[in-house]
Amino acid sequence: MLVYFEGIDGVGKSTQISLFNDLECVKTCEPGGTKLGKSLRELIFGAHPSSRAEIFLFLADRAEHYEKIIKVNKHKLILSDRSFVSGLAYAMASHENYDINELIAFNNFALQGDFDAKFVLLLADEALLKTRLKKRGTSDNIEARGINYLLSVQNHMQTILQNLKLPHIALNANSDKNALHKEIKKFIGI
């Protein structure tokens, strides 16, 4: 089973994945889950690419991640920090005039048509987001776009999951991490 953890920066995706230490599973992330992905991540967050170039860097990472991590481990439980839903949401928040169907087609190509997964969406309000980002300190060029941008990304994530009818659960990131973990385990059936 493949489970993607989604949400904007600071909602606790990594924390939730780390709580699955009692299970044999593959833990990974986008971008940066492969050797090539690590290099692409540096370009995405350090080089300030144009909006369209950023989309293609994320797609390159996604294609490599699918080929080298997801596809070869399909017989295992895979927990991934982010997915194509993030890619679509960040692109749409950056430029509302992008054609969502075109972006979905690009992602379909990168994922070889494999959208079979469950999605855990962690949601933050403005107060939680401000607190968590302040605790983290330094921000990358995407976090630097501001709170309103990140909340717009979050709204796009919710809309994408609903419109594509992807199996998902949306949880309040303000909740206790152990209570969230219990809800997530129930949702994915373990």
TrEMBL record:
Its EC number is 2.7.4.9. CDD domains: TMPK. Transmembrane segments: none annotated. ATP binds at residues 7-14. GO terms for molecular function: ATP binding; dTMP kinase activity. Keywords: ATP-binding, Kinase, Nucleotide biosynthesis, Nucleotide-binding, Transferase. It is an enzyme of class 2 (transferase). It catalyses: dTMP + ATP = dTDP + ADP. GO terms for cellular component: cytosol. GO terms for biological process: dTDP biosynthetic process; dTTP biosynthetic process; dUDP biosynthetic process. It comes from the Bacteria. SUPFAM superfamilies: P-loop containing nucleoside triphosphate hydrolases. Residues 5-184 form the Thymidylate kinase-like domain. HAMAP family: Thymidylate_kinase. Phosphorylation of dTMP to form dTDP in both de novo and salvage pathways of dTTP synthesis. Belongs to the thymidylate kinase family. This is Thymidylate kinase. It comes from Candidatus Campylobacter infans.
